[in-house]
Amino acid sequence: MNALIERLRDGLPEDAVLTDPDVTGSYAHDMASFCPAGTPAVVVLPRTVEQVRHVMRTATALRVPVVPQGARTGLSGGANAVDGCIVLSLVRMDRVLEVDPVDRIAVVEPGVVNADLSRAVAEAGLCYPPDPSSWEQCTIGGNIGTASGGLCCVKYGVTAEYVLGLDVVLADGRLMSTGRRTAKGVAGYDLTRLFVGSEGTLGVVVGATLALRPRPPRQLALAAEFPSVAAAGDAVCRIMAAGHTPALLELMDRTTLRAVNELTRMGLPESTEALLLAAFDTPDPAADLAAVGDLCSAAGASEVVPAEDEAESAMLLQARRSALVALEAIRGTMLIDDVCVPRSRLADMLQGVEAIAEKNDLTIGVCAHAGDGNTHPVVCFDGRDPQEARRAQSSFEEIMALGLELGGTITGEHGVGVLKKEWMARELGPVAMEVQRGIKQVLDPLGLLNPGKLF
Amino acid sequence: MNALIERLRDGLPEDAVLTDPDVTGSYAHDMASFCPAGTPAVVVLPRTVEQVRHVMRTATALRVPVVPQGARTGLSGGANAVDGCIVLSLVRMDRVLEVDPVDRIAVVEPGVVNADLSRAVAEAGLCYPPDPSSWEQCTIGGNIGTASGGLCCVKYGVTAEYVLGLDVVLADGRLMSTGRRTAKGVAGYDLTRLFVGSEGTLGVVVGATLALRPRPPRQLALAAEFPSVAAAGDAVCRIMAAGHTPALLELMDRTTLRAVNELTRMGLPESTEALLLAAFDTPDPAADLAAVGDLCSAAGASEVVPAEDEAESAMLLQARRSALVALEAIRGTMLIDDVCVPRSRLADMLQGVEAIAEKNDLTIGVCAHAGDGNTHPVVCFDGRDPQEARRAQSSFEEIMALGLELGGTITGEHGVGVLKKEWMARELGPVAMEVQRGIKQVLDPLGLLNPGKLF
Q: CA-CA distances (angstroms) from residue B431 to A95, A443, B401, B410, B436?
């Protein structure tokens, strides 16, 4: 190992190579529960593209695996270390290099925090829409690696739709540019998109050109209470079929509402089975909310409460954003699923999850990006109880099986990582898996980049 | 060759295998000028996925190249035959299988004509935005192959953004599904995007799941006249920097205006150097047009004329849509370029093209999707005059060189085909080209799919 450290130090500043096991151990895993993580040999924190190239050249020369990392807020173990690896943390490459209001692009390094970018572009009257729940911590590089979503996707789409071009250091240290800084471009295969969502298995993203949008007007929200998750799912269908485009359309079930109240004392309605939050950032949001409120009532909502003002709207969103932390508190441990179904099947999905919870005698809280059909069933359990943990694991898998049965995907936005790799093969089938492996082989013939993830 | 025909007939109906050279010859090329095209051995017109699989199995067994084709409206020779090939025309697979207003998707066969799909989804209150100029002829399969754009891209994006999932027959006849019918999904590498824009070189698209949008309100347009192309380019920058999102923002230069008048007797202003067309489909398009009109005036517009009504708006767009045909009439032959630059460099691009025309003593008319920075300089020449043809070819290449110099791409939406393959290598550089070739090798190890295109 000393040869590795020595060689890494040849091209990196002193403070960019961490070897103290107490320190490197803290880089071993992301925020996923129950995902195996190995012990890194070393953690490197480069500040320049040239330093990243040095790391990859070294790794290739010595055949050492490399695990690229952002803020480690991932939920699938995609950033977990493997034994003896180099953890390549990009968090120090955190500059916004350019914001251009005419071309509506930002050029950034991978370690920029999502919310920092949002604030930087807001100053130029622009907006970078993708907003994962972890936006105050997560990095753009991590967002690109997992093709992150967020609350705004129902109107504004996911990370992939905002990545125009990338600078990527390949496994052998060569630098490749993909894509463009123009609005359009079709020269050759879309390598940019190939890297988005590749979870660090194809190369190391060291720069990105991102598309921006004009800042939308402030949004106004409403909350609608439903006597069943099925009725809430029906409301979502009616809203979308009527041609509305809310800026967000979120759902929390009763378990989630209670957990959020427990955590925040927000006083959300606990007797309702499902709460739907809709928001509009259109020129006349109040009119759109009124129309959506009527559709909720027609679907059986017992109560429709438009927010009084922006502050109240923001509070409702805050409740939704605190759902995961709140649910974790219920039994101390949780498994967060991320199944996305066609939104026409949302009600079936929600009812199916209720049945799975009952069958396995467990609490499963559901929050969902309902407008996208992207559900996050959270299986709550006591991790110290092996039997309960087994039932939790089984529920987690039954939820994915149900999602596939309903024409959905095992992961809408969290990625595959180590958590769902067996399930990825089930979803994609043998022919697509062979092609996926072939592409991996082209870009990482020695299998050094984030091994054990995806495949 | 008889063995090939016989074997193809084993799995195809009688009328799906064309061998008469007079007939097959008419399938030899698309609409690009000056692109080499070979002589097909046979043209097949399957109606089912199984029939396509039979064709590909046969091609692989006998090592015969296959050229997939849609309506052959392409402008880069991407659908041109090679000697002895099977032309695989998908035009008979032309069914819209499903339109779902809740999931906002359409499931289609590849031979569906773009405008037919638009009409079919309009009946369900929905919209499929991508609208290439050839939309009344071109097929969705062809649009996917070339990642087509159109007039609406400045607001609604390109074909790639509307393809959620694909069914693809691989070179060896295996069937692979990619992507999803959900709003989101990140399981594995994005193979869907890899096929979009791959120009038939990686597999044969036999089905597509497309994203739809709610139908926008009808649009209202204005025309603004400028004393120079630079002033028009400046207006585009001001419009975008001010945060407007027009539904289209198109430019025609004086040469184009005169040619359109010549063809259509529309009475467009001929003394102006550049005409900018802007349209909005917002809730209050008149207000947006007024604001944009002011910005045009500030940039030096001599005249700003809002359309009186929808009919007049439609007529302005009709003028824009007839630009290419009109320009072709000037000298009988044309080379259509497709250089896209950052919109902040649009004025530089337009002035540079003027200089190239002058230097080469040629007429070059420019129409452009100005809001995207996507210019179509059309080099007009007399194809019977070898010297003029040489100067035209040289201008065509100087235009691409200028585009790259300005940070642009050689092709915004028409694709590489055979027309621009040397230039693709120049744009992408050796590392990206090696990766592109590696991916081709994974999916088409025998090199049978549309050989000679892209590479």
A: 26, 11, 20, 18, 9
